[in-house]
Amino acid sequence: MANESRPCPCDIGDRFDYGGRGQDVQVQHIKAYVCKPPASTDKAVIVIHDIFGWQLPNTRYMADMLAANGYIAICPDFFAGREAWKPSDDWSKFDDWLKTRDARKINKEADAVLKYLKEQCGAEKLGVVGFCWGGIAVHHLMMTYPELKAGVSLYGLIKDSDDISNLLNPTFFIFAEKDDLIPLHQVTLLEQKLKKNCKVDFEVKIYPGQTHGFVHRRREDINPQDKPYIEEGRKDMINWLNKYI
């Protein structure tokens, strides 16, 4: 049984029964899922998974949605072969599990993916989106890699001590109003720091009544009351990428 005092109240949400339209490839030391649009393009987006890993159908669904909107989408295994978290795992061991998967220590993987996109896919205009654990990774990458022209962080955890004001390029932050994981005061504090110190375009948006993971882990067809916000979040993500890439 999962421990009830869960340090991370992440659940899988509505697991999509979805096979994916792309294919798995080897990118140096890691595997990745790649989906390409019907027409050739030099625009690509890196899609960063949550704690449930690169093979979660929900995340592949997001990659395919980006491909349908004209981007080469790649969802690499940023855990580099280490096991993803499973909903049946013991939540009392979650902190120890997380220590070996630091979302800010992914430069080796990011370097490999960027090289692959440029050399194998002919990508020149690059962006990144990330969910939950991947949202934290987006914060890190957008302060590290100037070639990433746009970032979208979806409910990436923030601590009061975090300062992510030195973003190098425009970044969009999506949060859920009723997120058990990210108190609204942290979102307010983040926005204040960005307004004070950030030199590039950014936007922080809170979606009313939504919970953690709503954009990629909830199925709009079985959550009619949430459908407008799920669709709005997805549309906002794509619009941000379109604007800056």
Report on this model:
One of its GO terms (cellular component) is cytosol. InterPro entries: AB_hydrolase_fold (IPR029058), CMBL (IPR042946), Dienelactn_hydro (IPR002925). Keywords: Cytoplasm, Hydrolase. One of its GO terms (molecular function) is hydrolase activity. Its main location: cytoplasm. The protein is α/β, with parallel strands linked by helices and 245 residues long. It contains seven helices and eight strands; from the N terminus they run E-E-E-H-E-H-H-E-H-E-E-H-E-H-H. The chain has an eight-stranded mixed sheet with strand order 1-2-4-3-5-6-7-8, sandwiched between helices. Helix 5 (184-197) links the parallel strand 7 and strand 8 (202-207). The termini are far apart. The model is unreliable at 1-7 (pLDDT under 50).
Topology at a glance:
Elements: E1 23-27, E2 30-35, E3 43-48, H1 57-68, E4 72-76, H2 94-99, H3 107-120, E5 125-131, H4 133-142, E6 148-154, E7 171-176, H5 184-197, E8 202-207, H6 214-217, H7 227-244
Parallel strand pairs: 3-4, 3-5, 5-6, 6-7, 7-8
Antiparallel strand pairs: 1-2, 2-4
